Amino acid sequence: MLKKKIDKTQMYLDVAKLHINSIKDGFLPSLGVKFLALLYRCIDEADFSTLIVKYRGAELIGFVSGTFGTSSLYKLMLAHPIELTRALFMIIFNFKKIKKIIQIHNHITGKKRRKYPQAELLTICVHPDYRRKGIANELYKKLSNFFNSKSIFEFVIVVGQSLKANSFYINQGAKLKDTIQVHSKQNSNIFIQKI
Q1: Domain assignments of the chain as residue spans, ordered by start
Q2: How far apart are the C-alpha atoms of 181 and 164, rounded to whole Å?
Q3: Radius of gyration (Cα) for the chain, nearest Å?
Q4: 54-107 confidence digits (pLDDT tens)
Q5: What's the CATH superfamily of 8-194?
Q6: Cα separation, 37 vs 151, whole angstroms
Q7: Is 47 exposed, middle or buried (0-12, 13-18, 19+ CB in 10 A)?
Q8: What span, in angstroms and rounded, lies between the C-alpha atoms of 188 and 159?
Q9: Cα–Cα distance between 102 and 148 in angstroms, integer?
């Protein structure tokens, strides 16, 4: 049976919407669907990152993204100035969001982050109706295989300390190495996953 080819533009929108619906309290969802769709387009198109999606029919049920060049990823977004401007237009005058964007940049380029592997799991999301069915495990393994195919044998996961995802990463064998503040007054755990 032939699989229907997924329209890339629709796929990036599907991924952005699932991200927003799955990580409601995160900062990136507050930047909107257009920003996230552009971000995931850049992740998918770059040769130093990957976007792995899982559909059931026409419904996106999960995805994972990872990179071994985070700062290069944001530079790649600048190569799409019109789309980036449209995506960020509504927040140009929102000082709190601009400050958080600067905090993310400082995290990516900061001394504490540089002492860990560059490879990083960026996002993993599974549709609520499909959780606890092994989909997250499958996506995580596919991301590990992607890194392994690039001769990368460990990667970083940065996750908010209060999130349930911490136990998922521990169950995958990731080791807690440190804590960091990406945004002020919000602690995140740094895990290292060996492949």
Answers
A1: 8-194
A2: 18
A3: 16
A4: 999 999 999 999 998 766 777 888 888 888 888 777 777 776 766 666 666 665
A5: Gcn5-related N-acetyltransferase (GNAT) (3.40.630.30)
A6: 28
A7: exposed
A8: 5
A9: 31
**pTM, to two decimals:** 0.86
Whether residue 147 contacts residue 66, with contact meaning beta carbons closer than 8 Å, is answered with yes
Q: Is residue 138 within 8 Å of 126, Cβ to Cβ?
A: no
Token pair 């080819």 is found at: 5
Please tell me the predicted confidence (pLDDT) of residue 1: 40
148 or 5: which leads in pLDDT: 148
Residue 158 CA to residue 169 CA, distance in Å, equals 10
Q: What tokens appear for 75 in the block?
A: 């530079």
Burial of residue 38 (CB within 10 Å: 0-12, 13-18, 19+) is buried
- Tell me the per-residue pLDDT of 139-190, one tens digit each, with 9 for 90 and over: 999 999 999 999 999 999 999 898 889 999 999 999 999 988 765 667 889 9
- Region at 27 (left for phi over 0; alpha for psi -120 to 50; beta for the rest): alpha
Please state, in angstroms and rounded to a whole number, the distance separating the CA atoms of residues 119 and 174. 14
Average pLDDT across the chain, whole number: 86
Tokens 């601009």 belong to which residue? 98
